[in-house]
Write the structure tokens for this entry.
Amino acid sequence: MWKEDVIDLKLTKFFEVSARVLLSLLITAILLAILGGIIRTFYDMRLVVSHDFHEAFRTILVDVLTVLAVVEVLRTALAYFSEGRVKVTYIIDTVLVTVLTEIMAFWYRDMSWDKVAMVIALVLALAGVRVVAVRFSPRRIREEL
């Protein structure tokens, strides 16, 4: 039995080290994506002088909000790296930022009311799930005990 425990311990250690190495690579890729998004945003600033203001600002706004969504993904990865688990609130925040990016893009398009209503329902559902996730988080439950 002792030999099986040693093997289990070695396997667990191997998986933990492997996960950390892969997560480090993922974090590096996310940081490069953020850098690329920032460069793209500055590159799109040229649209302000060469295109219609609304089109230029929509493009820049979507670029900025997309970078912020990737920052939320980075925050999720860093939380997993430090705590060993993914926080549901971080994932919900990421999805909310992404959906809000799409809502901002809706301002510049003609959208049917049913699509707008579905997006509003999605945002409200995500907000409700986020409230529940914060209210019933494992850390908060442990603190109450």
Q: What stands out?
A: The chain has one domain: 2-144. The chain has a mean pLDDT of 83.
